[in-house]
Write a structure and sequence with these properties.
The structure is a homodimer. Chain A is an alpha+beta fold. Chain A is built from two helices and six strands, in the order αββαββββ.
Chain lengths: ~130, ~130
């Protein structure tokens, strides 16, 4: 499966996991030794921490994530995705911003290997 | 030049550019069609926008950036760097966080091709 198709399918599985608040299903979207670099927190490594990270996001009200792929740079078994996202809680937009994900072909599936994003909204006045 | 050495040298040139507030020198650290994905703003594309982005950062008081490479994933002419950063204004720490940079070998130098980061500090209460 080519990278662009694999990333599209991976993102569809991710959207479904968020919509169904399936935190237990999130590690399967990532490689075994994946790292997530979330804003305003420390790096998250591996299946257990990734599941806990998404469980917390769902407990905090995230009900939908809409990643949009703008670019895929193919590098053999790896591919870098650059894109945008919107995160919602019900009908409320919680955040929108930019994503950068290194995907890795793993057992026929493309999985997230290094995953980061940041908001495009201004910082709240502190 | 191997990727790890090239990234080290690229980061040294970046530190020098920040320390000397050399915004005009920043585009040379990036590929011609580079994209920067800064937090709390829109994506920045190409030499002119990149120079303006860093000029604004220096005008806003950034006097030093300390990137630290934690990991390099080599992919031929490309390499992904994951790391950490500290940004200072004089002796004050303005921010610290995580970086993810796709580097590309370009004319013998390793240059930043897709560059993003986010803070590890908590969001200010809005």
């Amino acid at each position: 499966m080519d990278a662009t198709t694999g990333i599209h399918e991976g993102n569809e599985r991710f959207r479904t996991a968020v919509r169904t608040a399936d935190s237990a299903g999130t590690p399967a979207l990532y490689t075994r030794d994946a790292t997530v670099l979330p804003p305003n927190g420390d790096a998250v490594h591996g299946a257990e921490e990734i599941e806990r990270f998404w469980a917390t996001a769902f407990e905090n009200g995230v009900t939908e994530a809409r990643p949009v792929t703008l670019e895929v740079i193919e590098m053999g078994e790896y591919a870098l995705e650059v894109g945008e996202y919107t995160v919602l809680s019900g009908d409320d937009i919680l955040d929108r911003g930019k994503i950068m994900v290194l995907w890795h072909r793993d057992d026929g599936f493309w999985k997230m290997h290094r995953d980061t994003w940041n908001s495009s909204l201004p910082l709240p006045a502190g």
